[in-house]
Amino acid sequence: MTDLHHTPTDEVEATRRSRLPAAIRAMRPKQWTKNVLVLTAPLASGQLFQVDVIWRVALAFVAFCLVSATVYLINDARDVEEDRLHPKKRFRPIAAGELKVPAALTLAAINGVLGFAIGYLVSIPLGIVLTVYLAVQIVYSVFLKHLPVIDLAIVASGFLLRAMAGGLAAGIALSQWFLLVAAFGSLFMVAGKRYSEMVALGAEAGTRRSLERYSSSYLRFAWTIAAAMVLMAYSLWAFENGHKGPWDVPWTTISIAPFTLALYQYALEVDRGEAGEPEDVVLSDRVLQCLGLVWLVLVSVAVFVK
User: Fold this and answer.
1) With 0-12 CB in 10 A as exposed, 13-18 as middle and 19+ as buried, what is 261?
2) Confidence of residue 82 (pLDDT cuts 50, 70, 90)
3) Boundary of a domain, candidates 174, 191, 225
4) Domain match, 304 and 289 both
5) Which range marks the domain in which residue 124 is found?
6) CA atoms within 13 Å, Cβ hemisphere of 161
7) H helices within the chain, ranges in order?
8) pLDDT band at 205 (very low <50, low <70, confident <90, very high)
9) How many CB atoms lie within 10 A of CB 6?
10) 181 pLDDT band (50/70/90 cuts)?
């Protein structure tokens, strides 16, 4: 077993643990930022701020938060012994012994029932997406978690299904370019996550079975190819829609620049081994946030301003 020494980081984590009840922290509210992806399809279509669309998307966000919390609780309950060997994951409430496994599974069931109730009330397609998401994640956790490549594909599918959920909840058609950007963007983030975990853990990477069959060169290859594909797909969409927007300015074409720079900035975090938790990168990297804001303004002008 890895010798885990008390460090200042431990003290920071202990302080953080005391701020919220263990049951709330076990649902990983910080990771709910991933569910903002439900906004992407309505945003790209220019329908986000229609009253009927925005409330459906808001409910889709809540439903995904609840169902994803179910997945986190089940995963942490299953991986409790493995997480105790990890320098960061050992502070999770279940691994740390703050929340018992039976209590965690009960909480998972409650979240799942509420999430599915909301999802199916909003729309049948959204409910189906939530069902597929939960089923895939459970099968992954029980049977497929330690299979290379399949591991990348299934974790990436979670991001893709989130991106699809907003459009399906609001009855918005999903374009081929949107699906390509979402799919390869998801694969880029997941391959980058695994690469960062390997770099950050170093000699301790063997404590995570999901990393055992990967090499750093393979994961670098995977996230590099995914980054190239997402940039190409986004650029093709941007050029195809470059005529849209006011004052005859190709706003979506211009948006390729901040999109590319944001991709490079995120790749820098991956290369440093600091993208093991994508939501932490998004919430802490000021350069990435600024580039994202510029990109959002350009795309918003293109799709909303007539």
Assistant:
1) middle
2) confident
3) 174
4) yes
5) 16-174
6) 24
7) 8-17, 22-26, 40-45, 51-78, 80-83, 101-122, 124-139, 150-170, 176-201, 216-240, 251-254, 256-272, 278-284, 286-304
8) low
9) 8
10) very high
Is 251 among the domain residues? Answer: yes
Question: Distance of CA 48 to CAs 127, 147, 175, 256, Å?
Answer: 20, 38, 16, 21
**Torsion on CA atoms 149, 155, 161, 166, rounded to nearest 10:** -140
Token pair 């077993």 in the structure block, residue: 1
Who wins on pLDDT, 219 or 86?
219
169 located within any domain = yes
Cβ–Cβ < 8 Å for 63, 118: yes
pLDDT over 90 percentage in the chain:
34
Is the domain of 43 the same as that of 164? yes
Residue 107 token pair = 């909480």
Dihedral sign for Cα atoms in the order 155, 156, 157, 161: positive
Identity at 159, one-letter amino acid code: F
Mean pLDDT of the chain: 84
> Does residue 3 lie within any of the structural domains?
no
| Phi then psi dihedrals of residue 105, to 5 deg | -70, -35
Which one-letter DSSP state was computed for residue 306?
Answer: -
Least confident among 2-16, 27-41, 225-239: 2-16
* Per-residue pLDDT, 1: 38
Q: What is the DSSP track for 102-160?
A: HHHHHHHHHHHHHHHHHHHHH-HHHHHHHHHHHHHHHHIIIIITTSTTHHHHHHHHHHH
Note the pLDDT tens digit of each residue in 156-174. 998 899 989 989 998 888 8
Q: What is the pTM of this model?
A: 0.79
